[in-house]
Design goal:
Strand order of the largest sheet: 2-3-1-4
Bound molecules: iron/sulfur cluster
Radius of gyration: 17 Å
Number of strands: 8
CATH architecture of the largest domain: 2-Layer Sandwich
Number of helices: 4
Length: about 130
């Protein structure tokens, strides 16, 4: 049994279709909805924490792609662009759980497993080097 975070992107006009529920039932998965978002163009984004057998999750991801749903396994809802990051440390000051910290060489490290997805660091970065995936 494994637990994975899956970021689902529904194409325009399909955000209301029950494909996520079908996924859960067909592949015998448990899930929590961590975040859900529908934009102005009626495109949907759903962040699920899915628990089940690894093979079932993989088959479920294939099922989603066959239904034109984008699916990506992620560790954290934020992504640091290390090409843009200048290692100023501003984001570490707002991260309450030390998911962002500077190493002994003053390089930024992102501990994805610690992240609570509060998004405080996205606004704190003067370089816009941290992107919210949802
Ligand atoms: S989203 Fe919040 S918890 Fe995660 S790294 Fe940024 S500040 Fe820390
Ligand atoms: S605030 Fe932005 S530029 Fe500064 S260390 Fe964090 S990610 Fe890098």
């Amino acid at each position: 049994m494994v637990v994975k975070k899956l970021l689902l992107s529904f194409p325009q006009g399909s955000a209301g279709e029950p494909v996520a529920m079908e996924l859960i039932k067909t592949y015998n998965l448990d899930f929590n909805i961590l975040k859900a978002f529908i934009d102005d163009n009626i495109k949907g984004t759903l962040l699920l924490e899915v628990r089940g057998e690894n093979e079932n999750i993989d088959n479920g991801m294939t099922f989603l792609r066959e239904h034109q749903v984008g699916v990506r396994e992620i560790e954290s809802v934020i992504e640091v662009n290390h090409d843009e990051c200048v290692d100023c440390g501003a984001c570490t000051a707002v991260c309450a759980v030390d998911a962002l910290e500077m190493d002994s060489d003053f390089n930024l490290i992102h501990h994805e497993d610690k992240c609570l997805e509060c998004m405080q660091c996205v606004q704190a970065c003067p370089m816009r080097a941290i992107r919210a995936l949802i």
